[in-house]
Amino acid sequence: MSDSAVLRIGEVSRRVGVSPEVLRAWERRYGLLRPTRSPGGLRLYSPSDVERVRLMRRHVDDGLAPAEAAALALGGVVPADGDRSTLATAGAQLREALDRFDEPEAQAAFDRLLGIATVDTLLKDVVLPYLEELGARWERGEASVAQEHFASGLLRGRLLGMARGWGRGPGPLAVLACLPGEQHDLGLISFGLALHEHGWRIVCLGADVPIETIAEIASSSDPSLVVLSAVSGELLERSLPALRELAGHHRLALGGPAAGRGQREIGEILRLSGDVVTEAARLRSLA
Question: 253: which of 57, 130, 270, 277 fits an S-S bond (Cβ 3.0–4.6 Å)?
Answer without folding.
Answer: 270
